[in-house]
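A reminder from the course coordinator: this example appears on the midterm review sheet, so study it carefully.

Given structure:
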């Protein structure tokens, strides 16, 4: 295999594992791809051959939860059979050196994952997240004040949806606010589906260097932030702390930012639901859960590989096979949700998988809920005449990114 071929194979590791027609949004910006919805109607787990690889696509709710809760389904994408087959040992070592793998617990199985998860659970308590609510409210209010003072029109992404969770995660980790734009830029490049392997390696190294400096600062002079708590209360070394901080920084702002922007877009395009929420603000927490279910920004799915032969939903998945849980399809499973393709802000809360399921369920989900609840409540209260400033079909969608959403949301009031 030539160097160019190895580079192309390495690029495949960062690309969607499914055909584009099953992952790339089209038509209604809030719905899963039509081909995915059609496939879901013909079963709950599907054997797909794509680029010479067998992939099991899970679209049923119960089957998805079974996969995500099964210890025989590995999250270790770095050392998966697919990764080992696609790239050489030399390139694997360059892409995933030990210092980069340290602390990357979302790509680990027990017992390594268990160790990290236990240490972090002590920092991500429900009480601590709720105690952050007043500070989240201050950040939301300050962003809205600035937006209103500047006057319409406004890009809701740049002026509200992105700054709010970015500033909150800075607060949580003890990152200087002045560094926000720089880590946002680097994170965006990492999540772009167009980023080359060489650029990914460089951006990852730059982010690690940035976070390592922060970790060493906390080791010298810890404060009362989450990262300082990990420094004080655990035996994690510098590489582990750096890896964990990187994960939390990236996950802590990109997902919530896109939910705030795309959620606002969805509400503006469903005026009867928006009006119901304006008239009954006590529904906001419920509406957040419905938006998480309805929008499912993890469009590429959640990947696992089987450590041994496993039977799920009547299908026998062989050891080494790749399994992809399609979050958009699972969250629209009609066996779980009546009229699943309708947005209903007063829908009774169900067991969506927007935050995953099982031992890898999102640690920061309570914080995300607080940010979205406060964000939507204040946005709709302060701007009762909020509306799109452009036709809906001119809103640029993030179909080129690993996390779905909108690149911009021009609004006026």
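Designed residues:
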């Amino acid at each position: 295999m030539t160097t160019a071929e190895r580079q192309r194979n390495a690029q495949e590791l960062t690309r969607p594992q499914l055909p584009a027609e099953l992952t790339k949004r089209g038509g209604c910006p809030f719905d899963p791809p039509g081909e995915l919805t059609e496939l879901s109607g013909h079963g709950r787990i599907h054997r797909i051959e794509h680029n010479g690889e067998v992939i099991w696509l899970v679209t049923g709710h119960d089957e998805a939860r079974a996969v995500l809760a099964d210890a025989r389904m590995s999250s270790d994408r770095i050392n998966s059979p697919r990764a080992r087959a696609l790239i050489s040992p030399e390139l694997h070592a360059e892409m995933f050196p030990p210092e980069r793998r340290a602390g990357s617990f979302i790509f680990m199985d027990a017992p390594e994952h268990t160790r990290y998860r236990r240490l972090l659970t002590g920092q991500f308590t429900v009480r601590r997240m709720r105690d952050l609510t007043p500070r989240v409210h201050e950040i939301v209010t300050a962003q809205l004040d600035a937006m209103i003072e500047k006057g319409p029109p406004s890009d809701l992404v740049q002026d509200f949806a992105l700054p709010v969770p970015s500033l909150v995660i800075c607060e949580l980790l003890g990152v200087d606010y002045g560094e926000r734009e720089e880590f946002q830029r680097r994170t965006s490049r990492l999540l772009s589906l167009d980023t080359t392997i060489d650029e990914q390696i460089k951006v990852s190294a730059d982010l690690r260097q940035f976070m390592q400096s922060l970790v060493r600062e906390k080791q010298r002079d810890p404060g009362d932030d989450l990262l300082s708590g990990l420094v004080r209360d655990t035996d994690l070394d510098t590489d582990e702390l750096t890896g964990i901080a990187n994960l939390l920084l990236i996950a802590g702002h990109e997902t919530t930012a896109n939910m705030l922007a795309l959620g606002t877009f969805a509400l503006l395009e469903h005026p009867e639901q928006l009006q119901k929420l304006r008239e009954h603000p006590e529904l906001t927490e419920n509406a957040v859960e419905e938006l998480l279910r309805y929008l499912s920004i993890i469009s590429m799915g959640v990947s696992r590989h089987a450590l041994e032969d496993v039977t799920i939903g009547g299908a026998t998945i062989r050891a080494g096979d790749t399994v992809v849980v399609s979050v958009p399809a699972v969250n629209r499973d009609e066996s779980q949700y009546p009229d699943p393709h309708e947005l209903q802000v007063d829908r009774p809360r169900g067991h969506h998988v927007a935050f995953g399921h099982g031992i890898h369920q999102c640690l920061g989900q309570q914080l995300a809920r607080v940010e979205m609840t406060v964000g939507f409540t204040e946005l709709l209260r302060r701007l009762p005449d909020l509306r799109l400033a452009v036709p809906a079909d001119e809103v640029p969608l993030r179909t080129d990114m690993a996390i779905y959403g909108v690149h911009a949301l021009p609004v006026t009031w």
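Residues 3-392 form a domain with the Cytochrome p450 fold (CATH 1.10.630.10). The two ends are 58 Å apart (CA to CA).
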